[in-house]
Amino acid sequence: WKDAPRGGPTGEGDAMLRNPVGSQRLDILEWLKDPVAHFPAPSHGDLVEDGVTADAVAAKLGVPRAVADTHLALLAAVGLLRTRRIRRRLHYRRDEMRIAEVARMFEKGW
């Protein structure tokens, strides 16, 4: 691994966030730092405590819901977002502890 490209043995970490699609994921993470400033109030749940829905993210990005679902699912799969089901919808919010861990890994160059 010592000679592997930056971003881990395959470089996937950097590639995931450093392409046009990855910039949308970074936007989502940034918006979720302060969801009240970036998203309308939901009819059920609380933006800060529960998070935002894929519909809200899709509207903000200007993309179909399926695209937002894909971004959110990937961010949740790598542990950067936590999910909570309210009624029939998943709500997403940042996992600050995991984000801090990942940031430390990037600072150290993995």
Short description:
With 110 residues, the protein is of the alpha+beta class. The protein has helices at residues 12-17, 20-31, 35-38, 47-50, 54-61, 65-77, 96-108, and strands spanning 52-53, 81-86, 89-94. Strand 2 and strand 3 form a beta hairpin.
Structural write-up:
The protein has 110 residues and is of the alpha+beta class. It contains seven helices and three strands; from the N terminus they run ααααβααββα. The protein has helices spanning 12-17, 20-31, 35-38, 47-50, 54-61, 65-77, 96-108, and strands spanning 52-53, 81-86, 89-94. Strands 1-3-2 form a three-stranded antiparallel sheet. Helix 5 (54-61) crosses helix 6 (65-77). The radius of gyration is 15 Å and the shape is globular. Mean pLDDT is 83; it is low at 1-11.
List strands and helices in order, with pairings:
Elements: H1 12-17, H2 20-31, H3 35-38, H4 47-50, E1 52-53, H5 54-61, H6 65-77, E2 81-86, E3 89-94, H7 96-108
Antiparallel strand pairs: 1-3, 2-3
Helix pairs in contact: 5-6
Identify low-pLDDT runs. Answer: 1-11
Number of helices: 7
Q: Strand order within the widest sheet?
A: 1-3-2
Q: Give the N-to-C terminal Cα separation.
A: 10 Å
Net shape: globular
Amount of helix = 40-55%
Strand-residue proportion: 5-15%
Biggest sheet record:
3 strands, antiparallel
Question: What class do helices, strands and sheet pairing give?
Answer: alpha+beta
Overall strand count: 3
Order of helices and strands: HHHHEHHEEH
- pLDDT averaged residue by residue: 83
Q: Radius of gyration in whole Å, from Cα?
A: 15 Å
